[in-house]
User: Fold this.
Amino acid sequence: MRQRKLSQFTFLLVMTAFLSACDDTIDIYDHRRGDAENYMIAVAHPLAAIAGRDILAQGGSAVDATIAAEMVLTLVEPQSSGIGGGAFLVHHDASKSEFETYDGREMAPASAHPEMFLKDDGTPMDWPGVALGGHAVGVPGLIRMLAMAHAEHGVMAWEDLFQPAIKLAENGFYVTPRLAGLLANDTELRTVPGTREYFYPNGEPLEEGDLLKNPALAKVLRQVASTGPNAFYAGEIAKGIAQAVSNALVNPTPMTPGDLAGYVAKKRPPVCATYRMHRVCGMGPPSSGGILVAQTLGILDHFDLSQYEPFSVEAVHLIIGASQLAFADRNFYVADSDFIPVPVAALVDPNYLAERASHIDPDKAMQNVRPGRPGRSAWNWRASPETEKGLSTTHFSVRDQYGNIASMTASIERAYGSKHMTQGFLLNNQLTDFSFKPTHMGHPVANAAAPQKRPRSTMSPTIVYDADREPVLAIGSPGGSRIAGYTLKAIIGVLDWDMHVADAIATPNIVSGGGPVTLEKDSDAEALKPALEAMGHKVRIRPMTSGLHGIHFHKDHMTGGADPRREGIVLGD
Ligand code: GLU
Assistant:
């Protein structure tokens, strides 16, 4: 079965390489791990890897390759991310030895309000119902953010970075098994005019191996390439987006060209924590990812994981405890810091995390994990509950020949986002990451919706540094609220157990946020269930489709890994 798929997919890639006029023959099973000296990209689709690798080979920077790869992903991995969505990018500038973070998160339009996810009777709307159509579409932030990063770190011309995606959109690319499988299983996408014609020609879902062209997207990319980001945020493209949201077949909701024109990408203060002599740095609010990773590792710093077998029950119990404590804080305190005061420094303060670590009993599960009082502040917020998703979103890691590193997670929220398309690209449903309930027992919820506010994310693009401030690891993942847990697994595998980054990525997923401990279905993790239950954990088993793509930097070379749960590869030189 796998053999059949393998050869078929290899064939597709040869053909794709032919179409995109490059000479690669790529078998994804041979490129799940990689080794390179000069530059590398680890990304969720082989065509994005080829595009990024080619830019790096021409002397492009990590940000240049990121732009080229993400434009290709918009086309070839449309279920996950694209120009109709948002992203967080963290960057290491080798010349200044500086870590920077860029926020391209979607923003609520002016029509948004705290009660927008409540029904007339005051109860929360149904999640899948409201994710469909116009209601949850945020103003896309990806293009503005990439333009900002390019202005600061681009080496090649902006226009050139769009050419691989434009060529593929015009010539076509072959549908992969994952894209075909998600199309076959989706019951809503085929009901939306515009989207239906693209993904279900003649009423049938596209199949693996079908050639798919997207001239409408090619046209948009050409305009953005030649005119710059304003082509997207003003004029015909912006008008088209606003109209698609306002006149959506399902849940039409006002969005105006002014909403698009008003979008601003932002640089945010980095969030870092010390872990075993390393400095782990990530994305601050409106993502909770950096705080979750920093808090969990800061708590685990009080235990010695390396004394245990990798991912043994003793170690897993500690990781779960630390992560549950971090999630309790995140649900309570974290949202868009432009709208509510998030006590970021207090949340990752080593003294506070030492106190949080004291809640963990090495032999027994905690019950009723509650948020702490970082900085002894009394806060008036209430926790917002978590929804579970995770078949969408994409993460990739890049290093260029100059030593710059980009680690970016991009998303349109759930698979195919709002399922509404305009001008060849899908629009996100990212506003469903707001809390549906604006208040809880009379107290405001930090992550309630508001005009121009950005919904809280879990996206965790991360760069780890050693004691000499040299980069060690770039990593991140898709996976909804499990993103931080997947990312932590890989960081711990590399730092505590000296695993090859590809092995740390492939190792079974075990995650706990607010709810029960989730073990990856059909993996070795299932065997931990009885022992964890005996310690008092509630355990369930689920498919867990992480999409980790990381690069580990050694003294004179680098190793990379792509998650075998998706279709990504590692390329470099
Ligand atoms: N919307 C999610 C977030 O920003 C990502 C979605 C996913 O990975 O499925 O945290």
